[in-house]
Write the structure tokens for this entry.
Amino acid sequence: MPASDFAVIDRIFHPRAIALAGIPISDPGHWTRTFLNSLMEHKFPGPLYLVNPRGGEAKGLKVYRNISEVPGTVDYVISTVPPRLAAAHIAECAAKGVTTIHFCTAGFSETGDPDHARYEDELLKAARQYGVRVIGPNCMGIYCPESHVSFHTEFPRESGPVGFISQSGGNAIDVVMSGRWRGIRFSKTISYGNAVDLDESDFLDYLTEDAQTRIIAIYIEGIRDGRKFRRSLTRASHAKPVVLLKGGVSESGNRAAAGHTAVLASNDHVWEAVCRQSGAIRTYSLEELLDVLVTLIYLPHPGGRRAAVIGPGGGSSVLVGDVFERHGLELPPLPPSIRESIGRFTPIEGNILRNPVDYSQNIVEFDKLAEATRLLARWNESDFIVGYVRPNLAAPHLLGRITPIINAMLQGARSGKKPLAVVFQPGVLPNAALQMADIAEKFLAEGLPIYYSFDGAARAISAVQSWNERREKVA
Amino acid sequence: MPASDFAVIDRIFHPRAIALAGIPISDPGHWTRTFLNSLMEHKFPGPLYLVNPRGGEAKGLKVYRNISEVPGTVDYVISTVPPRLAAAHIAECAAKGVTTIHFCTAGFSETGDPDHARYEDELLKAARQYGVRVIGPNCMGIYCPESHVSFHTEFPRESGPVGFISQSGGNAIDVVMSGRWRGIRFSKTISYGNAVDLDESDFLDYLTEDAQTRIIAIYIEGIRDGRKFRRSLTRASHAKPVVLLKGGVSESGNRAAAGHTAVLASNDHVWEAVCRQSGAIRTYSLEELLDVLVTLIYLPHPGGRRAAVIGPGGGSSVLVGDVFERHGLELPPLPPSIRESIGRFTPIEGNILRNPVDYSQNIVEFDKLAEATRLLARWNESDFIVGYVRPNLAAPHLLGRITPIINAMLQGARSGKKPLAVVFQPGVLPNAALQMADIAEKFLAEGLPIYYSFDGAARAISAVQSWNERREKVA
């Protein structure tokens, strides 16, 4: 992307002053107040101006009746003015020197109504005429922790390696909020809606060159310029891992996408081919997208498809084998030599010394667990180690055992020099959720990937390993 | 099943007095203390005797050195004596008049060790010789809330419609504990392990006739007598819905199953055919098993495959269509007449009046939401309604809106006389887990099925509907 184009978008992520145009005055509980609340709570350092023809005051800030009355310069506007006023609004903003407007407002072409579609045409025409760049309409805009710009009060304050482009604002919120608990942090997140001006390819090109972004994720419903998108996606995928979730592949999903962001979604096979050819990692649900991001951040190089698995529970050890093989991973049989080595300090009753190793009886003998894990890690038929823990199995007062169990696994895996993935299986029940989230946070900080189901872990590790294999083949 | 056989097993679920043989004395934290703790905390009303050659006292109860010293009669023994003493132990128990022994002890044929396998042969021989019935070895035994018998302190005290047969003790715990939060309660749960005497078919026959059991679930790793099992499964499936999870269908899962419960697991295709021919509902993970149970309890007759969906979030509305169609459900397009009816009181901006109906902008206008849902429910192209809510979207102080939103959907669906399923999508984050569990509990009590992902809901509803269709075809 030309340096000048990069600079234009980079400036969007680092606005010097923001005006909120159309901010609700009489109804402080209106949901679009999220922009003011978020910018204040995230401590946006630049000037923040409120604009509404009614004037008045909100949260201690004066409300200007028109953007022209704002005293200082403004480069970025978050606008919730009605669709019919959008074009005129652009003219006023341009006169004030505004370079970019994020139109949060919905009610354009996505409604399927010709009058509303006309507002969108007029909006675009005005933007071109006045040289103003537009994000949206019908979207949540920008989240950029390093510049304290956010559209949700609860989003993390700290930055991370993932740049996320989401056509849907709701899905952007879901991914960032879930990511908060999964150890995923974001360099930038863009909810871009109807994409009349700046589109998925523009942001993709930007993130491809953005030094703060190591991994790119995209939720996309449809594209306007297929050739441009393929080119951008291929370039991006050559530079960094790109994870893609395509919404609207079914008949009803397609209809919904048309109503949501006014796009013509296309056939599922086309997207399969686009991902294969470009080298992007395709996912099929938000949950899978999150699991793949966890893997790319914490287990980017499993080293192969062969897992050595250890944890408590014979039934779990049976199911993990089934699930891993279903997703194309392998659990090679444990050779007699390693069975004997582990058997030297592990009783045969109630443990299963195969692969998976069911370490039910000795799971709280932490030295033994660490040594058994070390032996699995040093085994040359294993590429990575999977340790599972089962919060449900224990009474609440026994949850304290989970940390030393994972510590023992980690110690064993590290001294055997193999990566470790930890699975909370099956999931975590509500009564243990906060306690387990604390435990997860501690281990994520140590660089350990945490998954909440065998299925999620297997699918994501397999997807990332497939991506590694394709890259090795090309290289 | 002959009445006499039914009576034998029924007595196991209603023991008059229980002895715990081999109870650990010196280590009160030993995990097998769970039997004593659970029976006491569940207030088992009959006499409870402790037996260990060391004698002494535990939890205020005298420990007898031998079962022969126990003063009263004992019909049921939970035994953790070592494998090499098992056969002799049976003889002693028989002399005392014991009719059933649950051998929790592991270390028999599942170890693959010839000496340990011999202990199992001797155990079975003694059981036959003395006419004592055996559950196990290598299992957790019986949970029966109505008779206050449990092997986990945290299991629910109240009974429910599901009879669960699980070869694995750990998976039994996972299902009952997860079921506790999903609104699933159990008439009986049996963890039966190596099944040397009483096996899956015996318990299946029993549950088929048990009036307290409306739905049967089975987790099975392998069977000893295939013909007997097919017959029992077919009979059971004709009487009640039977949900089956087969563990050990992969190479490594098979190996693990052999090490876990000493079975020869068989080929996946065989199990596919067994389920199809018998009429059982096959599932592929614990999570799916739970979702199908929720459906059978709360949404047993969706009435067809056509869903009408409503909730907040355009991105969600796109993904729900994709996921539902992937699992063989349908979302028919909303006819203009209903779009117009809903449009009369719903602005076009920020809502999508298709199917799914994205009710983002008006989700907290509860009267409108109820009326929109009612119109969807009265639509003759819809068989059932799916309402989704998104706890992640809201700041924590807004979670209070979830209950009135679901109430409005419920009111609308009921006045339109269609069943409603509610999905928390995407999942629930740890900070909201307990609050959302409370909300779920309230609605489960009103008979509303709650799911934690679109994928889980779609897969389970489709599985149950397929089962309904097969039954209609046969009938």
User: Anything to note?
Assistant: The longest helix of chain A spans residues 454-474. The longest strand of chain A covers residues 186-191. The mean pLDDT of chain A is 93.
